[in-house]
Input
Amino acid sequence: MALVEPAFLLFALIACLLYRCASRFESIRPFVLVALSLFFYSTWNPWYCLPITITALLDFNTAWLLVRTQNTRLRSLLITTDITLNLLILAVFKYFNFLLQNAATFFSAFGHTLPPAPFRVVFMVGISFYTFQSMSYVIDVYRGEQKPARGFMEYFAFVTFFPTLLAGPITRARVLLTQLQQPTRPLTDVQGSRALMMIARGFLKKLVFADYLSVNLVDRAFELPRMFSSLEMLIAVYAFAVQIYCDFSGYSDIAIGVAQLLGFTLPDNFNSPYRSESMVEFWRRWHISFSTWLRDYIFFALPPARRAKWRLYWNTLITFALGGIWHGASWTFLIWGLLHGFGLAVNHAAEAVWPRRGKQIPKRLFARMGGALLTFHFVCLTWIFFRCDSLQQVHEILIGLTRWSTDLVNIPWPIPVLIGLAILAQWWPDNWQRWTENRFALWPSTAQAVALSGVAFLIAWTSHTAVTQFIYFKF
Output
């Protein structure tokens, strides 16, 4: 059951009503939420419910043991074992086939042939997200930064929370579990209006922008780059940058909106990333829940850079190399992560060599625009590695970009319009969005219904392409 299917909207409506009714009885709220979440997850594959249950049992009991012992060695053993088992489960379901394939290639180079594997592991949607979410809870309990859950079902509701289960945001226990432990708050008119507006915006991003660009240019250009001119390939790279942003941020908007209807407030996961003036700023605006997870649980866990400045750059490279592998078992994802780590390291080095004199000296407009253009195009370059399935495909794309041909016969006119609108929207003032949401909340219910119906009609009228799967469902 994908989030853009009508069936999901019906399910979300029923889920909100059931959970709101169950909120009167605090003891059964977690059970209702777990049942709803597992039903939603089982619509993808009922077997998916088994590994997530094992993960939840492992992490809940590890945290339970951590708070009941003060023995330093035992606590270190518990947290090490828990992290190892979590990563082992993730590796089996996500990287087994990749490792097996590369092992066969390695041995074949020395004249040996590995016997065929007796089975292949089926990838599970959402495993990367709920594994990181569950691991963060155990680590926070170990550090003394999070109180343990009061019971397993309460914790299980946190891990399986269906709006964020498939593709995040990666929600911390101090945000979601804390709200599960509190009485459900009534849904105000402002909160309900904002939630519906976010859901509508998510559908608009996904169906009008992301899917149209994907079906009408990006997929064909990346699969058959020799059929496109250099200018068309450049536009296709820009189109993919817009597609992945609208696709992923659209999912986040829908997830956060549905969570709001259930009574949970989740932090935003995107904040106009393509207006960033540096790579550091980009990762403060792009997939915020993931970048902060990498910072708190990988970067800060590495040896500090107090004595050796080079460790800052080395730690950054390691962190984003692991972040790249998290996306999938592919050399292209590893290179994508290393490129971002390199960009961040250069950013840190530049700040060390040319430090700004405090906050009193604002950047000039020319410098800001130059930084934004440079950052955007560097990110677009890395998106080529992210989008391609192999290094051979990357090579073909890069060759296609350097042929210096300028034909535009393969570019439908709506594509540059959609790209332009999406990029311009990045510069929408932050306070305007909040003002729009507040004004919309003041409208009468009839006017809100008409406006949302208009958005639905616009989506149905403009999105003549087939609905594609969310990109981050693969991770």
Remarks:
- The mean pLDDT is 84.
- The radius of gyration is 23 Å.
- The first helix runs from residue 6 to 22.
- The chain is about 70% helix and 0% strand.
